[in-house]
# Entry
Amino acid sequence: MKDKTVLCPECQNTTELENEIRVGDIVECPHCGSELRVADFDSDGKILVKVIQEEK
# Structure
C-alpha cells in the first residue's frame, strides 16, 4: 500500500494527499505554494517528489 504523505523539499512540511497519485502527477504544497512533481515511490511506498523549477 502506498503512503499518501508528501514531504516538501522546499519547506520540509508534510501534507496528506486525499487522491490516488501516480508518477508524473503535479501537486502543490499548501504550506509554501511550491509545485511538486511525483518522481517515484520508494521501496516502502513513500512518495518521492521534486520541485518544479519555474523558468524565468
About this structure: The domain at 5-51 is CATH 2.20.28.160 (Rubrerythrin, domain 2). The chain has a mean pLDDT of 88. The radius of gyration is 11 Å. The longest strand covers residues 35-41.
